Amino acid sequence: MTADYASTVGTLRNAGCVFAEDEARLLIDAATSAEDLARLVQKRVSGEPLEQILGWAEFCGRRIVVEPGVFVPRRRTELLVHEAAALASTGAVVVDMCCGSGAVGAALLARLNGIDLHAADNDPAAVHCARRNIGARVYEGDLFDALPASLRGRVNILVANVPYVPSDAVATMPPEARTYEPRSALDGGADGLDIARRLVSGAREWLAPGASLLFETSKRQVATAVDIIAGHGFAPRVARSEELDATAVVATVLAPRLDQPSRLST
Ligand SMILES: C[S@@+](CC[C@H](N)C(=O)[O-])C[C@H]1O[C@@H](n2cnc3c(N)ncnc32)[C@H](O)[C@@H]1O
């Protein structure tokens, strides 16, 4: 074991792993034999994300199942969970849109009593993985097309970690992400905000009165993200965590303007 540890740390360090000691411990714990350890270390040296090798990622203090080819939940996304949890009350209908592994939904389920959680993603691999983390109500399809019609007008919290890397910047991401995570989980179009735009423009008819919509973004994109939200009649607020280096936009549904005709008026 001691020899395994020292040589595993050395191999990982030579391959450029910054947290070689921590990773060595995790890989040794996960291995079932010396041959298995050699296989796991070789995967890591080839650049496969540690979480996909182990089959889990730590997120909000929980182990989230992560299957090969599924986006690895990032610590920074815990900000979305904190913000959504602060807004949700018992019985709230919560949708984790673009759910990937379902990390956000799983963390909310663990933290909140009695929420009615639903999740959706357009990638079958993500849907399969999310079902392992949060159960059956994970739907497959393009954004709102995936949701059952019964949720229309009833969603209290719509939380989404949409892809938001500008297309040109995907090539500059670490090889771990570029090679082992699907491009569709990363690429948010020319300015990174294409999916966020579609999310915001489609959200209204699904949200209940007083509902909240939250999505992650970057410091550089946040001003544009706020404009997108304000342009669709939501009241936006920026949430920021220096500790997690995370930025999110939190929006609430504004009441209809008095100068707009009411559906009840004759
Ligand atoms: C950045 S990952 C986030 C995954 C997860 N929410 C998390 O934080 O770990 C974005 C996810 O959005 C999904 N996605 C991309 N475009 C989508 C679309 N048009 N409709 C539904 N899901 C989409 C991808 O498959 C991917 O799982």
Automatic annotation (TrEMBL):
**Keyword Acyltransferase appears in the UniProt entry:** no
State which residue ranges cross the membrane. Answer: none
The chemistry this enzyme catalyses reads: L-glutaminyl-[peptide chain release factor] + S-adenosyl-L-methionine = N(5)-methyl-L-glutaminyl-[peptide chain release factor] + S-adenosyl-L-homocysteine + H(+)
* One Pfam family named in its UniProt record: MTS
Q: Which CDD domains match?
A: AdoMet_MTases
Task: Tell me the InterPro entries matching this sequence.
Answer: HemK-like, MeTrfrase_put, N5-glutamine_MTase, SAM-dependent_MTases_sf, Small_mtfrase_dom
Specify the domain of life of the species encoding this protein.
Bacteria
Domain named Methyltransferase small: residues: 64-166
Please give a single GO biological process term from the UniProt record.
methylation
**UniProtKB keywords:** Methyltransferase, S-adenosyl-L-methionine, Transferase
GO molecular-function term, one example from the UniProt record: peptide chain release factor N(5)-glutamine methyltransferase activity
Q: Transferase: present as a keyword of the record?
A: yes
EC number in record: 2.1.1.297
PANTHER family in the record, alphabetically? Answer: HEMK METHYLTRANSFERASE, MTRF1L RELEASE FACTOR GLUTAMINE METHYLTRANSFERASE
Q: What is this protein called?
A: peptide chain release factor N(5)-glutamine methyltransferase
Provenance organism = Antrihabitans stalactiti
